[in-house]
Amino acid sequence: MPSISAGSESGGESSAPGDLCSKEIQDKVKDVIAKPVTFSVGPTGDCEISQDDPRGLQGSFGTVENASTNGGYDTYLTGIEATMDQVSKVQVAGLGDQAVVFTGLPKMGSGENFMAGGVTDHGTYLLQVTLTQGKGMARPDLEAVAEGILRAIDTASS
Question: What total number of domains does the chain contain?
Answer without folding.
Answer: 1
